[in-house]
Design brief:
- By secondary structure, the chain is mainly β.
- It folds into 3 domains: 10-166, TolB, N-terminal domain (Rossmann fold, 3-Layer(aba) Sandwich); 178-204 and 304-417, Methylamine Dehydrogenase, Chain H (7 Propeller), CATH 2.130.10.10; 210-303, 6 Propeller (Neuraminidase), CATH 2.120.10.
- It has 5 helices and 27 strands.
- The strands form 6 sheets. Strands 1, 2, 3, 4, 5, 6 and 7 form a 7-stranded mixed β-sheet that branches. The protein has a 4-stranded antiparallel β-sheet with strand order 10-9-8-27, with no helix packed on it.
- β25 (385-391) and β26 (397-400) form a beta hairpin.
- α2 crosses α5.
- The chain is globular and about 75 Å long.
Length: 417
């Protein structure tokens, strides 16, 4: 079992301007005019460059961090990072005091500058966010961590900038857990895998000896539950991503619904057939007490149907914000990923394809990740399964890069919470 270490950051708040947002988010339409933002390479002096090569085998980690930030902001669909070739001011000077007229000349409305030092096996990163139109600093922060954590610094900076400019929390310092798939469709090898939300730092958590299905993050921690088949019997596991500790929750013959966490992360919910009836059960993770909460054949006395559209609905998932439910819909041979309000009104279909399902929310409730399969011939050739993401506008859809085919994604909470 791979062990993933959560490294501690020391964050210094240098200054915070008066809170307001430059971007207004309308989830019912695409952001047709993304905010032009300049992400200047983070300045690094010659001594730190030498230390960077020794510690990380990277000559200019400041430039690499700025690329992480630039990529995160771009894929959100809310920002338009400007070409660095158009920049008129050097990074070190811009970080001290930008010439706002130079940045306004290239149509930037916001500017990110920074400085990186590596000394005594510690990485210190300063960054500033500037409002070009108002000609003032909006935010200044400094981070201290170990050098190998440089990508996470980029993600945290992205989250801070996103929150400052939109008024909502970001989702970049997060992980995606999923099922890695390799081999022909009729003989797939499936492993549990985890990566940063941008596709980097992939780690495989199982060997592929046993079938693994439906990994799900605890909404309040870096704990994962998943289903695996041990000697052809479904077995539920708990895995602590931070420590690598894994434990068996129990063997559940006849399981019909994969385990998921309750909103407070203290219980898991699952469905399995027992004594000829299929019912929903909860297990308290602290005392391991299993409780049946439905009584076959009735699902429950206080159940209300909320979907009345044409087609079949499945895989419903509450938004972290509590305002929407994401779902998979099958209608006339096509699969859709959509959202509706919690009372069933306002249904919007965001994307359609030959086969796609299993949406999972980003922690800020603005983006969905899901998986999509391609058709194969009679021999199983041409088959693939890939992760995709789409925002609530339905306009910003993209493939999420993975080392192998991938399915059943689940998005973690913010690591820097």
């Amino acid at each position: 079992m791979s062990r993933i270490i959560n490294l501690v950051f020391v964050i210094f708040f240098l200054s915070l301007g008066k809170a307001y947002s430059l971007i207004e988010i309308d989830i019912t339409r695409g952001n047709l005019d993304p905010l032009p933002i300049a992400v200047s390479p983070l300045f690094q002096d010659d001594i730190s460059k030498k230390n960077s090569i020794n510690e990380l085998k990277i000559e200019n980690v400041g430039s690499e961090i700025s690329l992480v930030v630039e990529n995160n902001l771009k894929i959100s669909g809310l920002f338009n990072p400007l070409s660095k070739e158009a920049f008129l001011q050097k990074p070190d000077i811009a970080h001290l005091k930008p010439r706002f007229e130079d940045w306004a000349l290239i149509k930037a409305q916001a500017l990110i500058t920074g400085k990186v030092t590596i000394d005594d096996k510690k990485l210190k990163v300063e960054f500033r966010l500037w409002d070009i139109l108002a000609g003032r600093e909006m935010m200044a922060l400094a981070f201290t961590t170990v050098p190998s954590n440089w990508r996470r610094v980029g993600h945290i900076i992205s989250d801070k900038v996103y929150q400052r400019l939109t008024g909502e929390k970001g989702y970049f310092d997060t992980r995606i857990i999923y099922v890695s798939e390799e081999g022909p469709k009729t003989a797939r090898v499936k492993k549990l895998a985890i990566m940063d939300q941008d596709g980097f730092n992939t780690k495989y958590l199982t060997l592929g000896n046993e079938l693994v299905l439906t990994p799900r993050f605890n909404p309040t921690s870096q704990m994962v539950t998943y289903l695996s088949y041990f000697k052809n019997l479904p077995r539920v596991y708990l895995l602590d991503i931070e420590t690598g500790t894994q434990e068996v929750v129990g063997d559940f013959p006849g399981m019909t619904f994969a385990p998921r966490f309750s909103p407070d992360g203290k219980k898991i919910i699952m469905s399995f057939a027992k004594d000829g009836n299929s019912d929903i059960y909860t297990m308290d993770l602290e005392n391991r007490i299993v409780e049946r909460i439905t009584n076959h054949p009735s699902i429950g006395s206080n159940v209300k149907r909320i979907s009345f559209g044409k087609g079949l609905y499945g895989t419903p998932v509450w938004s972290p914000r509590g305002d929407l439910i994401a779902f998979t819909k099958l209608h006339k041979g096509k699969f859709y990923i959509g959202v509706m309000r919690t009372d069933g009104s306002g249904e919007r279909l965001l994307t359609e394809n030959y086969y796609q399902e299993a949406p999972s929310w980003s922690p800020n409730g603005r983006v969905l990740i899901f998986y999509r399969e391609t058709k194969s011939n009679d021999k199983g050739e041409g088959f693939s399964a890939k992760l995709w993401s789409i925002d609530l506008t339905g306009y910003n859809e993209r493939q999420v890069q993975t080392e192998t085919d991938a399915s059943d994604p689940s998005w973690s909470s913010l690591l820097s919470n």
